[in-house]
Amino acid sequence: GKVRAPTHIISTISDDRGTCLFYSRREEPCYAGVPMSSILEQGFGVGDIISLLWFKRSLPRYCTKFIEICIMLCADHGPCVSGAHNTIVTARAGKDLVSSLVSGLLTIGPRFGGAIDDAARYFKDAYDRGLTPYEFVESMKKKGIRVPGIGHRIKRGDNRDKRVELLQEFARTNFPSVKYMEYAVQVETYTLTKANNLVMNVDGAIGSLFLDLLAGSGMFTKPEIDEIVEIGYLNGLFVLARSIGLIGHTFDQKRLKQPLYRHPWEDVLYTK
Ligand code: ACO
Ligand code: LMR
């Protein structure tokens, strides 16, 4: 019989050989088995493409719309935030687009934009174990861990993050259940009694709402949800979104022909 040589790579999300003919007889590349022509014919958007390539399935319209809203709202937050600052400095050092982009992307992490996965992990664990917001926040404090998804440098209890409000509003209207989001809101209510800057941030909003999307859409089994949360897919939303803004900042600096950036001495505390 035929002997199949072992392959060095396994891939399950896309195929450019023109042989994924399940839907079509035409030779064309496919995302998760869906040919390009079908993607266009069905009027798919970026949310659908993310569904196919990240989650390997088509998701209902309200889910893909939510993904697109996350991307639109996180695309940029001005020139002063960590990522844009790095990108601007790098572009002004004469570096190319990719270098400027990745220099900004490299700031995404536990403090800036990359707290979505941990927010989902901790909120899910606390909610599923039935911890009250008080028990959850105080147990985090005892462990010396800041609550991911809570806290902002600029936003305050009396000056909330509009992006968080918009995401929550969309979910309240369109999601079958927002139990994880409501739990995160209760956590925020408690943290705000401690300090006025301990608001829910956009990472916390996306992290908690994506749990609701995964659990409420009926499109994922429990082990699949656990795997998505454990692997950590969700920071990818911020990385993808913010790339749009960082590319924009690179073009902006080049267009403005900005010179090499040097930080002013007066803004440094030189001390021993
Ligand atoms: N949980 C518990 N306590 C907190 C938290 C939190 N998430 N954030 C701040 N605090 C408290 C701490 O007691 C801190 O004191 P400490 O330095 O002794 O730990 C005090 O508030 C003041 O902290 P600062 O560092 O001055 O707060 P800052 O405004 O610099 O921090 C930050 C903002 C980095 C976002 C912080 O709140 C944090 O680490 N949050 C968790 C991570 C997170 O969600 N990041 C995503 C932000 S949104 C975005 O980047 C798109
Ligand atoms: C952002 O989206 O970049 C911000 O929430 C972070 C900030 O410091 O404003």
UniProtKB/TrEMBL annotation:
Q: Which organism is it from?
A: Linum tenue
Which superkingdom is the protein from? Eukaryota
Summarize subunit and interaction data from the UniProt record for this chain. Heterooctamer of 4 alpha and 4 beta chains.
Full-sequence range covered: 345 to 616 of 616
* Family to which this protein belongs: Belongs to the succinate/malate CoA ligase alpha subunit family.
Protein name listed in UniProt: ATP citrate synthase
Subcellular location(s) of the protein:
Cytoplasm, Cytosol
